[in-house]
Amino acid sequence: MRIAPPPAPAAPEPPPLRKIIHIDMDAFYASVEQRDDPALRGRPVAVGGAGERGVVAAASYEARAFGVRSAMPSSTAKRRCPDLLFVPPRFDVYRAVSRQIHAIFAEYTPLIEPLSLDEAYLDVTADLQGIGSATAIARDIRARIRAETGLTASAGVSYNKFLAKIASDQNKPDGLCVITPRRGEAFVATLPVARFHGVGPVTAARMARLGILTGADLRQRSLTFLRAEFGKSADYYHMAAHGRDDRPVRPDRERKSVGAERTFDRDLTDEAELLAALDPIVDAVCARIERAGAAGRTVTLKVKYADFRQITRARSFAAPVSDRASIAAAGTLLLRALCPVPRGVRLLGLTLSALEEGEPTNQLGLAL
């Protein structure tokens, strides 16, 4: 007697689509300053140091119209906008406002993943208040933020983190953008790859040299090709090009480090050139530290040589630091210890780690 084979196991059901909101406060630091000082309203404002070594931590939309951006040296910002008003940062105030905003989030979901003081992902798949849709929840949250803090927020709503973050930037300031599952792939197809979260200027330029300018271009390249060109980032690019992103919202996410790096158009060997190249990297790191409202104990220098060999060197402070002078001094010390560099350097990076929340401090006198 012939025995029938057992039935094939049923294919697992795909997980339900998530409902993700990305909330991004509009020019957060500058908007707080304009809210608290009526004399600043409607005027170009930069939060940061006005001195020669100062860096813009945040710029109002009036300042952005002149090309002023965060992480820009203050001297450059002043040249672009002669009427720019500099305001020293008040991180205690920004943190207090951020706590207000997060308390609002918590009324809608426990799944909150903060990215910095002024932005966060929310997973509202479970509609705790029975509002009816993620779009309606986003509208409600934005209205609450305006009513309770006097500030505006932009929101992106979609079925994954990648698209929600892009959507929040679509209609800034004070905007809302929704990307539904039906629109996801088509939306990504027309999107410049330079706008993909995680694709920096260097990677975007490299993609352009390969003929990859949009999501549609990226989608046409095989995963094998992308892995050969972009290594461990390839899987993310491949998924994103198809409008997919499986990363969950992680409420326990903790920022472990803040850093920046630059790849140079030509290999650098001269010590003075290398130290000059480190300077804007320090500026970028400090701007991100200010944005995160954090301080850290360990400065790490990353060096990639012309032959692609990569090394790191680190020094730790006795207490957390966040001021530019301390970070620049540590980076300079680490870089000088590696000179001369006969092979040449194609990339420099600098990272501050062992982070904790805290006021900017000056620990230059402490031993490294």
UniProtKB/TrEMBL annotation:
Its cofactor is Mg(2+). Monomer. The active site is at 119. It is found in: Cytoplasm. This is DNA polymerase IV. It comes from Sphingomonas oleivorans. Belongs to the DNA polymerase type-Y family. One of its GO terms (cellular component) is cytosol. Mg(2+) binds at residues 24, 118. The record marks 29 as: Substrate discrimination.
